[in-house]
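Tutorial, part two.
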Amino acid sequence: MSEIARAAGLQQSSLYYWFARKELILQAVVAVNRCPLEFIERIGAGSGSPALKLYRLIRFDTAQLCESPCDVLEVSALAMRQPEAFPEYWHDRQRLHDWVVSLVRAGMDEGIFVAVDPDLTALGLLSLDEGMQHWMRHSAEHRPGGTTSFGYPAFGGDQAAEYTASTMLRALLRRPEELAELQAEAAGFDDRPSGGYARVIR
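Running the prediction step on this input gives:
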């Protein structure tokens, strides 16, 4: 708390006036920033196939997670240990999961996607974008001269977003060769708020 107060230019007592403990600060961040859910509401009523909507959502969610000030896996671990302190986090996560499930089911019903378990697929899709964010955030530790012997090339949020969306949709499409057409269609949408991906957490 002292480090947070110092970074914010406050006395520690002033910070405690607003937040009794650091978990409440994180809870406030999670409650305020609901970018994927707002994105869903924006594209949900629009035209486009379930595949296009799912591609855009995964691309957007991955990119905005990569720009987030927090590691979503660390937030999830904390929320798991203190579920009573993070009810909105789990409520929002359920809404996001359910929407992905509905898109997967719609894609199967329309014959666009192969037959899969929608719930397991939604879990896999969201896990991949969270994992990409985690490894991007810690990439400095895995570059030459870093703190570990495991290394990999650096990558950016936009690169991670396109890779994650393309990989997952290719696996779902009944006709994988249609991915290029889907990518071209998605490229026509600027899903980045104010010309840049939102620096927020789900």
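Residues 6 and 78 are 23 Å apart (CA to CA). In part three we will examine how such features are distributed along the chain.
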